Amino acid sequence: MNIINRIYLKQYLPGIFVWNVKHLSQCLPKVYGSEEVHRTHMLNGVRVAAAQSLGAQLSACTIMFQAGSRLERDNQLGASHFVRAMSGCSGHAYSLVGKARVLQQRGCYLTCSSDRQTLAFTLRCPFPHFHDLKYFLVDTATRCCFHEWEVSDIKPFIKDNLLRMSSEQRALDLVQKAFWAGPLHQSIFCDEARVDSMSSANLKDFVTNFTPSNCIVTSCGIPFEDTLKLAEGLHLQCVHDVCCEQEHMFSFPRGGYEWHDLGSGSDTCVAAALLGCGTQDLCCLMKHSILAATWDVLFAHLREGALDRIVRDQTPLGCQTDELYPTYKPFSISYMETGVFGVLAKSHSSNANKVANTAAQLLANMDKLSVEHIDYGKKRLKLNLSINEENCINISESLGLQMASKVHIDGPLNAYYVIDSIPNEEVLQLAKDIVSRKSDMAFAVVGDVDAVSHEDLYDNLR
Q1: Distance separating alpha carbons of residues 296 and 50, to the nearest angstrom
Q2: In this structure, what are the phi and psi dihedrals at residue 91, rounded to the nearest 5 degrees?
Q3: H/E element holding 442?
Q4: Least CB-packed of 82, 140, 188, 317 within 10 Å?
């Protein structure tokens, strides 16, 4: 009698229910996430990787291009935002209505995400449906038509995206714009003044960056052979142009200031950033992640102190938090060769100036951590990595980023070994190195900009 029959009989024989559950628990895997990762490089430059999933009922496949907003030229600024929004539009093989209807009937999702470095198309579906729906993924990622009428129809949606963007998301985007001088200065969102001027020709010109050398195909829960066949079926043209050389142009910190006014009395977000690290140095990247996780643990005490309005001075950063309902969140954003590290604060406009100055002081005094705090940060980072392994889309896209950065972290266990091998003293030294560059700190304010004093923020750096 197989397992399916036993499951069927439990509805009629309650007496065997306990034995049945016990038997099933022995058949399920003990570890979840990716068990084994297969990698290869094709002759045309496309990189392929597939993670064998344990215990997951859903699978995901990603086609990623190293062609984010940093590759946009003057006439293409905002093109990556349009490509992201038009991921469900008509391609050469399937129409918008046809793809939407079939995906909805199968209970599957086809998404597109992008940043300044990459642009990724991901299909999430049960594995039995993958062989039928993979053509939708290929059609969306490499064969989008960008018809002029579809571009015109999507412009109100783009403007609505800009209007409904959360203040936190806008602040994170603006602080990078304020920090960088160079290609990384370019936003992942289209400026509202440029929406109406975007044309089909500009988008088609931008997607010429989708070359084999910039393409990565990854999957989670899909056999490596099937992933390789999908990569072999991609028809990408290798176009040598000036835009391809822009990827190798470096960006430099400039310590700028950006703001977006939402009106008087609105909740205000303040982001402060310093120079971080790139993704090519795995050890340094992990140190920044440990430092951000340590801050996350400490900021939990700050949030508690704000809710009950108790002044807490136990924090090692030496900042009292008697503001009403502020939130502080650390962030570490890394690209190929560099990145940013900072803190995002949000509060009511009445306390915005005080919270903004507290955020700047936190970032300028984060070298006052101890070894015990770093231990807590390592534990928090391990927990975050374990939670990330529950989502097949996160695993697939993370694997693509690893292939792009030429690093190998096949699962959380390998990441644990790297984290444990880093001495706490090196993380503390990294914090001191970051603080030593506080003169390059950049700020972004979103909300009631009149409530935040520009001069007071830079006084904290002296």
Answers
A1: 32
A2: -115, -170
A3: strand 442-447
A4: 317
pLDDT of residue 322: 46
Q: Are 207 and 119 in contact (CB under 8 A)?
A: no
Contact (Cβ atoms closer than 8 angstroms) between residue 435 and residue 364: yes
CB-neighbour burial class of residue 165 (10 A; exposed 0-12, middle 13-18, buried 19+): middle
Residue 237: phi and psi, rounded to 5, are -95, 135
pLDDT of 243 strictly over 60:
no
| Residue 342 near residue 175, CB atoms below 8 Å | yes
Do the Cβ atoms of 395 and 51 come closer than 8 Å? yes
CA torsion 184-146-88-157 (nearest 10°) is 70
Task: Give CA–CA dist 326/348, Å, rounded.
Answer: 8
Dihedral pair phi/psi, residue 332, rounded to 5°: -135, 110
N-to-C CA span, the chain: 76
Residue 6, Cβ neighbours under 10 Å: how many?
15
Closest CA to 423 of 316, 297, 286: 286
DSSP 280: S
CA distance 253 to 180: 5
Average pLDDT over residues 352-357: 90
pLDDT exceeds cutoff 90 at 302: no
- The helix/strand/coil state of 196 is coil
What are the pLDDT digits (tens) for 407-442?
Answer: 888 778 888 899 999 999 999 999 999 988 888 899
CA dihedral over 284, 290, 292, 294, signed as positive or negative: negative
d(CA 343, CA 168): 11
Residue 328, beta-bridge partner list: 345
Integer-rounded Cα Rg, in Å, for the chain is 24
* pTM for this prediction: 0.84
Residues 99, 140 contacting (CB under 8 angstroms): yes
Helix, strand, or coil here: 322?
coil
Q: In 3D, which of 442, 451, 416 has the Cα closest to residue 172?
A: 442
Residues 179-186 have a mean pLDDT of 91
With contact defined as beta carbons under 8 Å apart, do 222 and 130 qualify? yes
For residue 462, is pLDDT > 50? yes
Residue 13: is its pLDDT beyond 60? no
Please name every residue paired with 36 in a beta bridge, in sequence order, or none if there are none: 52
Under 8 Å CB-to-CB from 384, ≥6 apart: which residues?
Answer: 293
